[in-house]
Amino acid sequence: MAFDERLADRIRDVIQARPDVVEKKMFGGVGWMLQGNMAVGVMSTGGLLVRVPPEEVDEAITDPHVHVFGRPGSKPMKGFVIVDPEVLDDATLGEWVDRGAERALELPPK
Fold first, then answer.
1. For residue 62, what is the DSSP state?
2. Contact, 3 vs 30, CB < 8 A?
3. 3-class DSSP state of 24
4. Tens of pLDDT along 81-100?
5. Is 1's pLDDT higher than 70?
6. Would you call 102 exposed, middle or buried from its count of C-beta atoms within 10 A (0-12, 13-18, 19+)?
7. 3-state secondary structure 43-54
8. Distances (CA, A) of 90 to 39, 68, 76
């Protein structure tokens, strides 16, 4: 399954305001890196992948449109959530992209 190109274009419009953004194919979709750390991505299975502080995942997934990131039956990947695309109006998308970018920039550069 191909990733949502329209969502990817919308993310590019928001994230490219930051310096040194690197776009990279990953997870069957595309991700954006800041200082070598993934900030956000578009999944081939649908949805926006967002890096968040691990301690904020439990609170984030109380929203019915936010889910843990991981394969079914396996342990979820720490510090990442998936946001359902149908709730990503421009303001919400911007908030999630900013949240992912802020987290990526808090981490040591790779």
1. T
2. yes
3. strand
4. 999 999 999 999 999 999 99
5. no
6. middle
7. CCCCCEEEECCH
8. 18, 22, 28
Among the four given CATH numbers 3.40.50.300, 3.40.50.1820, 3.30.1460.30, 3.40.50.720, the one describing domain 5-106? 3.30.1460.30
Backbone angles phi, psi at 99, to 5 degrees: -65, -45
Among candidates 69, 94, 86, 74, which has minimal Cα distance to 10? 94
Residue 101, Cα to own-chain centre: how many angstroms?
9
Overall size of the chain counted in residues? 110
Task: Pull the structure tokens for residue 87.
Answer: 């709730």
Domain boundaries, the chain: 5-106
C-alpha distance from residue 12 to each of 60, 106, 110 (Å)? 23, 21, 22
Tokens of 56: 């904020």
Contact by Cβ (8 Å): 73, 13: no
Q: How high is the pLDDT of residue 71?
A: 75
